[in-house]
Fold this protein.
Amino acid sequence: MVLGRASGRTQCGVFPDILRHLPENCLVVANNTRVIKARLSGKRPQGGRVELLLSPPLEKLRGPSSAAGEDSAECEALLRPAKKQRPGDLISFAPGFYARFLEHLGQGKGRVRLFWKGDLAAVLEENGRTPLPPYIRRAHAEDAADADRYQTVYARVDKAGAVAAPTAGLHFTRELRQALISSGREWAELTLYVGHGTFAPVRCADIRAHALHPEYAQLPEETAGALARAKAEGRPVVALGTTSARALEGIFQAQNPERSGPERVGPKRVAPEPAGSVGVGGFPRFAPFVGQVDVFLYPGRPFRVIDGLITNFHLPESSLLMLVCAFAGRERVLAAYREAVRLGFRFFSYGDAMLLL
């Protein structure tokens, strides 16, 4: 579905038609993160099973091995059941692979210390499961298909660490991506290691009080340069997915606080770690970036970077739907959703797509 932000008019077709609708000179920015098998099922020595969903990217867990050849790192995780865990409890996943529970963080989250031997990515690949969204039910026998389907074709092995896929990108085949580039449109990439907070509903009576879970982002120098050139030349920037959108807007907000609009109600942002600077013709700067972002985009919040958005159809009461409403207008988006329901569009992670321009 193509939705005109100004007119509210919709058009429908199949996804490869997107090349007929994207501006000919646009810059498309995609999130190249790779999903890891971050869902772990373990046992407690005193009995009972525990399920963990790890949170941070792999590179934040890597560290020196102990004298015994054992690696360890602290991280956050969602636990089920959470209330039964006590500080010091051990959770065993496989020989040489276990966690020690450290403390409760509220809302089903806890801090654990993970212990393993060898390459962590290989250990998770062998012992973990694909962290599908909670509304998707899969038997173990179907995990192999999901492990392949729940990755974009441009996901990079060295960017592994997300616990959810940037699902708008699942619509792209290698051939379609190449056709987009061959058409003269520009393709650039950043990394946002999507966390479990992407599925958290907004429960606050005043949505401005909702705090997004911080996510680790990386903006490479070549993408910062591409953004600066596109803005200086007046070319549209199209975010491929809400993860790319919130990474771009969050990084811009961190690097240009004076142009970021009113602050939201809630905790302060995590301090970023920008380095260097790329800017053209006096436009707002885009610098290479490594750090955390937690920008919450809801109706009334300004967008400073993106001019278009490719996304899926989202859950009610989700921060993702609020982002889309903020970008194209609440009434226009909800009217388009009603039309999508009438036409039998599929919603959520494995569903159909929207292009908002």
About this structure: DSSP finds eight helices and 17 strands in the chain. Residues 2-35+149-356 form a domain with the QueA-like fold (CATH 3.40.1780.10).
